[in-house]
Design goal:
The structure is a homodimer. By secondary structure, chain A is mainly alpha-helical. The first copy, chain A, has two domains: 49 residues, Homeodomain-like (Arc Repressor Mutant, subunit A), CATH 1.10.10.60; 136 residues, Tetracycline Repressor, domain 2 (Orthogonal Bundle). The first copy, chain A, has eleven helices and no strands. In chain A, helix 5 packs parallel to helix 9 and helix 5 runs antiparallel to helix 11. The longest helix of chain A is centred in the N-terminal third of the chain and has 25 residues. Chain A starts with 8 loop residues before the first helix and ends with a helix. At the A-B interface, helix 1, helix 4, helix 6, helix 7 and helix 8 of A face helix 1, helix 4, helix 6, helix 7 and helix 8 of B. Chain A binds a DNA duplex through helix 3.
Amino acid sequence: MPKEIDTNTEQKILDSATKVFHEKGYDGTRMQEIADDANINKGLLHYYFKSKDSLFETIFSLALGKLISKIQVILELEIPLEMKIDLMVEEYMNMLSKNSYLPRFVLNELNKNPEKFIAKHIGNNMKNTFSGFALSVKKEVDAGLIRQVDARQLFMNIISMIIFPFIGRPMIQVVIGIDNKEFQELIKERKDHIKSFVKQAIKK
Amino acid sequence: MPKEIDTNTEQKILDSATKVFHEKGYDGTRMQEIADDANINKGLLHYYFKSKDSLFETIFSLALGKLISKIQVILELEIPLEMKIDLMVEEYMNMLSKNSYLPRFVLNELNKNPEKFIAKHIGNNMKNTFSGFALSVKKEVDAGLIRQVDARQLFMNIISMIIFPFIGRPMIQVVIGIDNKEFQELIKERKDHIKSFVKQAIKK
DNA sequence: GTCTATATCATGATAGAC
DNA sequence: GTCTATCATGATATAGAC
């Protein structure tokens, strides 16, 4: 009797594939390594997923969704700018803490074929996502609550401060001179730091 | 007579290898592609560089040096904090604008073997590099010129805002909804934006 | 120094037994 | 569904002629 019930094989493959692809990227990943990690053999891997490409597509789409959808939802909420910023920082940092390889993986693969990504995974429903944020900024500026600021630059700043440490970690640790534990500490404190840093920067 | 004088073959190889490695990373790079780009054949490539690994080592060391050395020098300068920040932004953004693949390449490869990098390329002379920056911050705080701020977080903020757009470009363009030209415009304006953003954030 | 083979090996993928 | 071969391809690296 095929073991099926208790630990679904397809799920085991997806878990292992996620792990390996995220760490090593498409080019650096071997089907053998995924099979080993999932405790099955290559043959079975190809039984579930026709090719490395098709398996990769699955993993990549999931990862891209994770990275984009959260921010998309927040940007489109009709809430005051300050809350929006807090939410972005809070939600995104939490998610990245649990998936530290995610941004590097997605942005890398994205960079190898940007066209494909833009066409396939986004469509044009992203158009109004950012205008939601830009509008929030404009409102506050017009009301005299914050300084005049380019919403696009502000968005880049926030997203940069949130994501970059997870990508630049080795460099940061060496330059600042801290070990893994201290880095984790900094990340923990970082949510509050970014929130107040940004607010201070735009407040009138 | 071997053509040697006018376009040095080794340099041509280094140029092509830089181009291909930076774009595709170690795993994605084929020796054939480097040879093609340099208009020579694979055999000759191995005549100049024993292996793909040795060629990669050369390219990676150069890239890492470019990414680290500039910041190291600036951080160690004995100048006021404000000038230090301006210099970091100015110099780094200029360099990255001319080498937009550099940070992605270095940080990626770095992440694949951080140990090797830390041991080999840095040593311990980085220790006092960051203390130079931390000291600049402390001075200003003590003098009551800026708000109390964690120098490590501040450093992360600055470096993130400078580097991330070059890594996250495809994502940013899609989310904000801008084309290549508009992105270039934003990058140009970004130097001044970051400078004032940071100063506003820390000013008392 | 430069080129044309060619050896060697690793990897993605398939065929077929159980 | 799962495993054990095995094939076919493509990549690094070397040998040897010019």
